[in-house]
Amino acid sequence: MKHIIVAVVLMAVSSGAALAGGTHAGGHGDKVATMPIGSPGEAKQAKRTVNISMSEKDDGKMLFQPAVLKVKKGETVRLEFVNKGQVDHEFVMDVHDGIMEHKALMEKFPEMEHADPNSIRLAPGARGEIIWTFANAGEFGFACLIPGHYDSGMKGDITVAH
């Protein structure tokens, strides 16, 4: 419990500007703020489904397939995940700097759990989904931020076109 409190305090301090800007959705309360990458969407608005697998290879490489996503500004997409690997994996999408800040925090507090709407964590063999509306055009990223996974190749890019 002490580690969780310390993690929350460090996260708040290290991303104070992001919190003040309303970019942290965090699942705290009834209203979810829009992040630069967008916000949770409604299933009935999703016109397209993208299937994403999470896995690891015998050589130690970890990956998402596909590792590049292309969507349109304002588009609501159903992202369906399956963990085909032998270990837990997660998917977190954000601005690139946000991913790197979150990665550093996860390295300090590897047992930290989070329930942000822009992320999902799956056990081996598990399935899940995120329904997301991409609000702004630009270049974003996604990654597995469980310590060691990003450095083993588990990352990708999201292009949101106008």
From TrEMBL:
| Signal among keywords | yes
Which stretches make up the Blue (type 1) copper domain? 56-160
Give the InterPro entries listed for this entry: BlueCu_1, Cu-binding_ET, Cu_oxidase_CS, Cupredoxin
Superkingdom of the source species? Bacteria
Q: Which Pfam families match?
A: Copper-bind (PF00127)
Ranges for the region named Disordered are 22-46
Keyword terms: Copper, Metal-binding, Signal
Q: Where is the signal peptide?
A: 1-20
Which terms does the record give in the GO molecular function aspect?
copper ion binding; electron transfer activity
Family matches, as SUPFAM superfamilies:
Cupredoxins (SSF49503)
Quote the protein name from its UniProt record: Copper tolerance protein
- What lineage, starting at the top, does this entry show? Bacteria, Pseudomonadati, Pseudomonadota, Alphaproteobacteria, Hyphomicrobiales
